[in-house]
Amino acid sequence: MRLRGSARLTLPDGTGADRVAETLRGTRCTVELASDFRSVAWRKLLQNAAAGLMALTGRRAGMFARADIAELTRVYLRECLRVARAEGAQLEEDVPEEILAGFRASPADLSTSILTDREAGRALEWDIRNGVVSRLGRVHGIPTPTSDVVTALLAATSDGPR
């Protein structure tokens, strides 16, 4: 693996992750061990889900400055948060606003991997970033109307037909 800058890797504590941390000690990859990995992973999933909106619009982070996009992002992330909590994630009510604030504070030309994949004509990882919210929402009886629309549009954007 080639790492061009620094990176942070978060792993679940107590699963042998200390061996990974020791292996990467002294490299540009910092390993953090999380006792509540489920919550850490779900928070990252919420961020990735919101980034799917960038792939749908073909726009970079500057789009989150728009009031309409900001409100759509809030609605979507609140929906995702309900599913995350049903799955056992311990996330605060303000997580959606924090994620949106992060996008809004980013450079306007900031991209994400899903947008980069779309621009390059590659298949999108929509199912593990967005589709999972709809599927798990159904499992828990949680309506996910925004997620259902975003997922369908990302699937069509990724898979065609063209």
TrEMBL record:
Entry-linked Pfam families: ApbA_C
GO cellular component: cytoplasm
Species of origin: Microbacterium saperdae
Domain Ketopantoate reductase C-terminal as annotated: residue spans: 36-156
Gene3D superfamilies: N-(1-d-carboxylethyl)-l-norvaline Dehydrogenase, domain 2
InterPro entries per record: 6-PGluconate_DH-like_C_sf, 6PGD_dom2, KPA_reductase, KPR-Related
Name the UniProt record assigns to this protein: Ketopantoate reductase PanE/ApbA-like protein
Entry superkingdom: Bacteria
